[in-house]
Amino acid sequence: MAKRKRRSALGRTLKVLRRSYANAAEIVRVGRLTAPHRTAYDVVHSDRMYSLRRYEGIERDEAVDRVPLLLVPPLMVTSEIYDMSPDVSAVSYLLGQGVDVWLIDFGAPEQIEGGMKRTLDDHVRACDDAIQRVRDACDRDVHLAGYSQGGMFCYQAAAYRRTEGLASIITFGSPVDIRKNTPVPMSDQVAEKLIGGLRTVIERPLNELEGLPGFLTSIGFKMVSPKKELQQVVDFVAKLHDRQALEKRETRRRFLGGEGFVAWPGPALRTFIDEFIVANRMASGGFVIDGRTVTLADLTCPIHFFVGLTDDIAKPAAVRAITGAALNADVREVGLRAGHLGLVVGSKALAQTWPTVSGWMRWVDGGGELPELFREQEAQAPIDDIDDVAFDELDLDVEDFYDFATDAVEEAVKSLGRVSEDVSSAIDTLRWQLPRLSRLRKIRSDTLVSLGRELAQKAEEMPDATFFLWKGRAFSYADADRRVDAIVRGLFEIGVKPGDRVGVLMRSRPTYLSIVAALNRMRATAVLLSPEMKRASLERALSVGQVKHLIADPENVRAARDAFEGPVFALGGPYGAAREIPDGVGDMEDIDPAKVHLPPDYEPNAGRASDEAMILLTAGRAEEPRAARITNRRWAFSALGAAAGASLDPNDTVYCVLPLHHAAGILVSVGGALVGGSRLALGARFAPEHFWNEARRYGATVVFYAGEMCRALVDAPPELNDVKNPVRLFAGSGMRRDVWERLQQRFKVGVMEFYA
Hints:
Blueprint: H1 2-30, E1 41-46, E2 51-55, E3 68-72, H2 90-96, E4 100-105, H3 120-138, E5 142-147, H4 149-160, E6 166-172, H5 188-201, H6 203-208, E7 211-212, H7 214-224, H8 226-238, H9 243-259, E8 264-265, H10 266-278, H11 281-284, E9 287-289, E10 292-294, E11 303-308, H12 316-320, H13 322-325, E12 331-336, H14 347-364, H15 372-379, H16 401-414, H17 421-442, H18 451-461, E13 466-470, E14 473-476, H19 477-493, E15 501-505, H20 510-521, E16 525-529, H21 535-544, E17 549-552, H22 557-563, E18 568-570, E19 586-587, E20 612-619, E21 625-631, H23 632-645, E22 653-656, H24 663-676, E23 679-682, H25 688-698, E24 702-706, H26 711-715, E25 729-733, H27 737-747, E26 750-753
Parallel strand pairs: 3-4, 3-5, 5-6, 6-11, 11-12, 13-23, 15-16, 15-17, 16-20, 17-18, 18-19, 22-23, 22-24, 24-25, 25-26
Antiparallel strand pairs: 1-2, 2-4, 7-8, 9-10, 13-14, 20-21
Helix pairs in contact: 3-4, 5-10, 5-17, 16-17, 16-23, 17-23, 18-19, 18-20, 19-20, 21-22, 23-24
């Protein structure tokens, strides 16, 4: 009996081994055991960026009343993430629920001509285009859903179009605040410095990289959870004899083995790292898509996000940050005990994720109750994240920029032995502030330094980086520099010569910056005039400033012509609209820069420290204008001091609501942003009722103030979202102690008081 049992067990073992060998041999020979799974679909649109699929789960004449859902995949994963195999296919499940399923397929960039040159903007525009196509085809608003970075695309595209045509947004493991995605909890300040330092280390290889190959993203995905990867290998070997079990898991095995991963194009990767990891603009706002500034505060449709409570790739705190960023939307969370992939693929996803999605869509469209998972979790206490370490801001009162910056550097150097934020601040100071202070010390009367020169250097160093933001549009350093060069040619054409004083009568706008920089570049002097001046004051100011030519924007050109007997010219204006230029006024926009011949002795940016840069006009108590002569040295002192004092760097956005004819506007705000390599967001004028909406739209981190400006902010009625703002610092002079304390307490911002 015992021998028969042993022979029977041996026979079963040999049978298992023979089956295992046969299955293994077929996998080695053919590569797979089954044909690839694919739910049938039609390609309704295709271009160089993407193809748009519509799945065939329903008859088209029955689809009229079906709710459309547009699925968006991440960059590094194929669109088959939603249709991996029959038993875990999200597409099949949704079709069975009567959903009209559409999907964006970016394809494999490495296999498409020009695919590795795709930018992040290309992908967001593709999502925007697909939304419109689905909306037009279905004649109803669309639910937009995305996994991982695909969900980030959903947020970005929805904000880009101000949620027009969208019924709701649904995301799965999509991070918003990358600084909360670090392996160990740390303050935002420390995370910023750590991430920025790593970005500097990889600068050269990143710039030379064509893209991230698919096999690397596959390896990276597996290495995040090596235990699960080992379990999958063990499970595969244990089931090698069971062909039915292998066939069931075939598609998933091959997908995770590498077939499901594609390359990440270099330009898109660099923008993702710089804008959404280093600068963290998804959380702060002010990211730029197709030359337009965008903020998640523009999202107004309902948002449903899934968070993986055991997700090591998109940590819960990073994903939940959408609740603070989408201030004007109804945002609802469902947390699942799942990892990153488990949110959309697997038995738990099929049992919980996708039924909740279909129920959510019905509820949003008014055809059902809120899904059960929402009701269960809303009844429970929220799962708290680990709190970030809180750090207090250091308030300083100083005599001037230089003394303040020097003291800050000395203190930071002393703090190198400390830990946490002190160390990060010291490193930041050594990286950014010491070079600025060194430049200040080295400036002599004959040093080549000027606003025009600084802009040219930035245009050479970082041409594609955003310099200024205006009415939702973004302009790069290269854009600004080209505009300045064109205006220089126009100035020579109308007879302006180096050494001439030229009046500038404009409201805050990009052309204001351009004309001041152009005059500085050719060594002429801009005389900055207030558009609020009455005619008599303006006439006196023109006389005091010894103006030879007067340039105004179209809104102020009539006042300029009435107050000045010399040559008056119009520049700039409402782009895309008719410009009304009165008789007797020249229009510089009619000049073709390409046809202007520059003087043979013209040398751009030849201004030295002792040369005159601009004239600021102020009114005394008797309303008599006084001229303040600003040299290039003084401009550099103010600009470098502001940048050092406020610790400005390329991740900052300076929000300027001060008049540009004011010293705090042109010298501190504009100069500090330019020297710091920061973005400059121009506000038309200070309006407390619009201030915070614009600050969020631009992702403003630093605001320069003057006098009692901030009192209007603290006197405004309180709002629920007061503390949910991106500003880290208000800096300037003239703030009273009571306003200072109320500003810090109410908006949780730092305040730095100094004198310009």
